[in-house]
Amino acid sequence: MWLGLGFLRLIAILPYPLQYLCGHCFGLLIWLLPLAKKRIISINLKQCFPDISSTQRKRLLFKNCLSMGMSLIEIAMSWWSSDRALRKRVQIDGLDNLADALEHGHGVILLGAHFTTLEIGGRLLRQHVPFYVLQRDQKNLLFDAIMTRARIRNYQKAIHRNNIKELLKSLKHNMPVWYAPDQHFGGSNNVVVQFFNTPAPSNPATSRIAKISKAKVVPFFQERLPGLQGYHLKLLPALKNYPTEDIEQDTALINQELERLIRMRPEQYLWAHRRFKGQPGEHNTIYNQ
């Protein structure tokens, strides 16, 4: 891990064209190696895009591998590149949507998803507006320590996902907080609602947090543009009439919004996650077939 992080640290000082080339090479390596994660990606793509051909899904898998390779480089860029180097790589739309939501004075939940561009998207947005991030513990303690240190340096505060008290305190101070509830949620409080037309245990916390804090929910989307064009960030209008008194309806709405974001750039989403494990009925063995 030390060698890997040291290598990424060196890549962070390279010119962007060379960083892009390294990311492409890593992606090709992921595509060529017999990795178990590729099987998970294939299953997820088949489940979420049943109407496209096997050839199209294979092409999407290849592009997703390239995207994962680039994400390794973007982690290095996010943690160690200078603001000056990154600023010229970004286009951003919708800052007025965030400003309008903050005028209510109860903070903003920046609703995002686990794209492969997650780290770089957050770092680029931070150059325009201050916000905090939620994060979970990583299995590798060294990686977790380096990530936490970098995020505190870049965002001032990295809130553990279980620290609801600190999250609500930040929203009370009218601070935006980045939150991604799109991954599998197997807790006792999960709500089973549709995600890409499949029943999926989903996280209802967005509704509960918004109800307690009165924070607005602003969808946040980031994408890697083709070639050396850089990145595009988009802040969408805050969700209207949200939350309601129906937790299941609210969770379904969040899943619909996340699905809409993912469909914008499906090749850049993190499909290597077992999103559909634990479904009821005929779907519960999807990854065992």
Feature tags:
single chain; 289 residues; alpha/beta; 7-stranded mixed sheet; two-stranded antiparallel sheet; 11 helices; globular
What would your notes on this structure say?
With 289 residues, the chain is of the alpha/beta class. It is 48% helix and 15% strand. Helix 8 links the parallel strand 3 and strand 4. Helix 2 crosses helix 4, helix 4 crosses helix 7 and helix 10 packs across helix 11. The longest helix is centred in the N-terminal third of the chain and has 27 residues. It starts with a helix and ends in a 25-residue tail after the last helix.
Shape: globular
Q: Largest sheet at a glance?
A: 7 strands, mixed
Order of secondary-structure elements: HHHHHEHEHEHEHEEEHEEH
What is the strand arrangement across the widest sheet? 1-9-8-2-5-3-4
Instruction: Calculate the terminal CA-CA distance, rounded to whole Å.
Output: 33 Å
What integer is the average pLDDT?
93
Summarize the structure.
β6 and β7 form a beta hairpin.
Summarize the topology.
Elements: H1 2-11, H2 16-32, H3 36-48, H4 54-80, H5 83-87, E1 90-93, H6 95-102, E2 108-111, H7 118-126, E3 132-135, H8 141-155, E4 158-160, H9 164-172, E5 176-179, E6 191-195, E7 198-202, H10 205-213, E8 216-224, E9 231-235, H11 247-264
Parallel strand pairs: 1-9, 2-5, 2-8, 3-4, 3-5
Antiparallel strand pairs: 6-7, 8-9
Helix pairs in contact: 1-4, 2-4, 3-4, 4-7, 10-11
